[in-house]
Design a protein that fits this description.
The chain has a single domain, classed as Four Helix Bundle (Hemerythrin (Met), subunit A), CATH 1.20.120. Helix content is about 80%, strand content about 0%. It contains four helices and no strands. The chain starts with 14 loop residues before the first helix and ends with a helix. The structure holds fe (ii) ion. Fe (ii) ion binds next to helix 3 and helix 4. The site of fe (ii) ion has 6 residues, from helix 3 and helix 4.
């Protein structure tokens, strides 16, 4: 069974967020079974992807005046900081910590983050889109 079974309960109804999360889940699932150089390369790809993924969500939050932007961004920064520190070790060949983090921490983190902060953002974006549509009528 993959570490992050997709889509399971993860779909938020926002196609952009759901597509990004599908890619994130696929990367995490590939990392779970990767070793050595393949693991290093995939971990760096995850780091890149996560930077873009969080950046895209933060841009949506800023564009639509999402009330919990600061809290959500702080959580993204904390997670990216962890991934960067682990990535630095991984490129030096020390992949054990990064591997443990991927298998023991990331799936649970994603489950909670998607169900709470990201789901609140998706609901806010849907509301915002309706307001824009109604205002245009
Ligand atoms: Fe998020």
């Amino acid at each position: 069974m993959p570490l992050i079974p997709w889509p399971a309960n993860y779909l938020l109804g926002n196609p952009g967020m759901d597509n990004t999360h599908a890619e994130f889940a696929a990367l995490v699932n590939s990392l779970a079974v990767a070793e050595g150089r393949e693991f290093q390369a995939l971990f760096l790809a995850l780091l890149d992807h996560t930077g873009d993924h969080f950046g895209a969500e933060e841009a949506l939050m800023a564009d639509t005046a999402f009330p919990s932007l600061e809290e959500h961004r702080a959580e993204h920064r904390r997670m990216l900081g962890d991934l960067r520190a682990l990535g630095q070790r991984a490129v030096q060949g020390r992949i054990t910590l990064a591997h443990n983090y991927v298998t023991e921490h990331l799936p649970a983190w994603f489950a909670v983050h998607a169900a709470t902060m990201d789901s609140a953002l998706a609901a806010h974006l849907a509301l915002h889109e309706n307001q824009v549509v109604n205002a245009a009528r």
